[in-house]
What we know:
Elements: H1 15-23, E1 35-36, H2 49-56, H3 71-84, E2 98-101, H4 104-115, E3 123-128, H5 132-140, E4 144-149, H6 165-170, E5 171-177, H7 189-202, E6 205-209, H8 226-232, E7 241-246, H9 247-250, E8 259-263, H10 265-278, H11 284-295, H12 298-318, E9 332-336, H13 341-352, E10 354-355, E11 357-358, E12 375-379, H14 384-400
Helix pairs in contact: 2-11, 3-11, 4-5, 4-10, 7-8, 12-14
Amino acid sequence: MWTMNSNLAKLQPYPFERLTALFKGAEPPAAYKPIVMSIGEPRQASPDFVGQEISEHLAGLSSYPATQGSIELRIAIAKWLTRRFSLKANSLDPDRHILPVNGTREALFAIAQCLVDAGNDAFVLMPNPFYQIYEGAALLAGSKPYYINITDKSNLIPDFDSVPEKIWRQCQLLYVCSPGNPTGAVINIETFQKLIELADQYDFVIASDECYSEIYFDDNKPPAGLLQAAAEMGRNDYKRCLVFNSLSKRSSLPGLRSGLVAGDAGLIEQFRLYRTYHGSAMSPPTQAVSAHAWQDEVHVKQMRELYKQKFAAFADILAPAVKIPMPAGAFFVWLATPIDDKEFACKLYQKYNLTVLPGSFLSRVAQGVDPGKNYVRIALVGTLAECNDAAQRLKQYWSAGTFGRFTGSPSSA
Length: 413
């Protein structure tokens, strides 16, 4: 009798499955229109050029696309990365350092399957709280996840100094995310460079998830990136460094499923080989839209301005009740709760038909701490009017101060 991959049994329910279970039996008031702020899915209008690019390249659907993507797309990506992260001219070879992917989610998962050698008692390190794809990728690659806690004491980035040397020695892959999901905190150049030195010392790969890199609030301080840190060290080969980015957040195109991986040419070549077997080439119309999007900054600046407006209004409305922490980047509010995070989220749904995500659904207990407990993640991805409405409801909920006894069943989630 055949059996399934035993590592499948190690996967935990996805946060939104847990949220559905948490809300089971809860009845929100019909007087309030539902507002969902639990999922980080941009719902702003797509750039104007998208439809035209797709219609003009439909003929490309009559042939199989190459895994490596078109040279036009790879050149557009290389130019954007060079411009955005102040890289040395021509240090990114579109043929050797760039690989288009179908969004960062599938690529972040696949890179662990490609690079991890489970036979060596491998560890895959990741932030905690985290994007759950990192954990699933590590488990299905046959490795052990190691969670690096994120707390106020570590300035809301992973506490890399807390990792024991024996763990670094067994590390094969390190996931980082900057700006971070869910905190919005940014890893600075110096910390990235410290991680590169650790990767050299202990021979592991850094997978830097930078899909929120273009959502930031200080125009004079765009978030740094891993390739930028390597370049400032004179490391123009980007050895052991891979960055992942996408158009989902940058261009509000989550349904396009278009992203990039860039960095170490040797790793890119192995990943390209893996993906050739994996059958994950990007369709020609998607490539055409993507090439245009990576070259256009006008729509990105407009998107960034809208997020600034939403955060400012959200914080202003809630100011009398609670101070909203302003992140350095991304579009999440990481809010400490006065009661258990699951109770807080369920009561908010029951009373005001407003859905937020309990922080403990994004974290694991590690080193005796659950760093997501008693936080909620609020995604400001709707319209300005919708975010303002949500802020008013949250203000009423918070100001009442009568959170009451929880009537759901958080243990079931």
